[in-house]
Design brief:
The chain is built from 6 helices and no strands. The chain starts with a helix and ends with a helix. The longest helix has 46 residues. It folds into 2 domains: 138 residues, no CATH class; 48 residues. It is an all-alpha fold. Bound molecules: zinc ion. The site of zinc ion has 5 residues, from α2 and α5.
Length: 187
């Protein structure tokens, strides 16, 4: 259960970081979706299956108990090679760059230093190379504190900027109205 809920936390942090990075873009919610999709399409499916079967268990899942397709799905969703190929292919088909997809690349970038060899290191060069980086697991206590602490600061800054912007807009409107009033009296 711990690992299961931790997996959800991982997805939560991915969603929050993606939102933070893309928050000024119109497509922020679509980006947030692409930011969590790599994990939804791999571990999310396992989670859903276990939930339906009522077989959610405590502790990290045994690697040997995980089906082969999960490893294949994880390779595909966590590879820069596949990401670039899809990004390029979409450009060739639509003649436009589909920017929300960059959130997928960001997901892989975040995963590389935050997974250790103990549990699903990021296969970011698959299928060209088997090279993986032995990072710090995001589930490490102090790292989680740091991660969510940083997220809190970033979201406070975003909220602060939004309030500031709104106040400025209100000020401008008042100025504009006052100016209009002044002109009316004059005329
Ligand atoms: Zn991931």
């Amino acid at each position: 259960m711990l690992r299961q809920s931790l997996n959800k936390m991982d997805i939560l942090a991915h969603g929050l970081w993606t939102y933070a990075v893309f928050h000024k873009k119109k497509y922020v919610w679509l980006a947030a979706l692409f930011g969590i999709l790599p994990d939804i399409l791999s571990f999310g499916i396992i989670f859903a299956i276990n939930l339906i079967n009522g077989s959610l268990r405590r502790g990290p899942p045994q690697l040997s108990s995980l089906p082969d397709w999960l490893f294949a799905a994880y390779n595909m969703t966590h590879s820069f090679i596949i990401f670039f190929a899809v990004f390029l292919l979409m450009h060739l088909i639509t003649k436009k760059w589909f920017w929300p997809l960059m959130a997928w690349g960001l997901h892989i970038l975040i995963d590389i230093p935050t997974h250790s060899f103990r549990f699903f290191p990021t296969p970011f060069l698959w299928p060209l190379s088997d090279y993986k980086f032995d990072g710090i697991s995001w589930a490490t206590g102090w790292f989680m504190l740091l991660n969510y602490g940083a997220l809190m600061i970033v979201f406070l800054a975003i909220a602060h900027n939004r309030v500031k912007k709104r106040k400025q807009a209100l000020k401008n409107t008042k100025k504009y109205l006052a100016h209009g009033q002044h002109r009316k009296i004059k005329g």
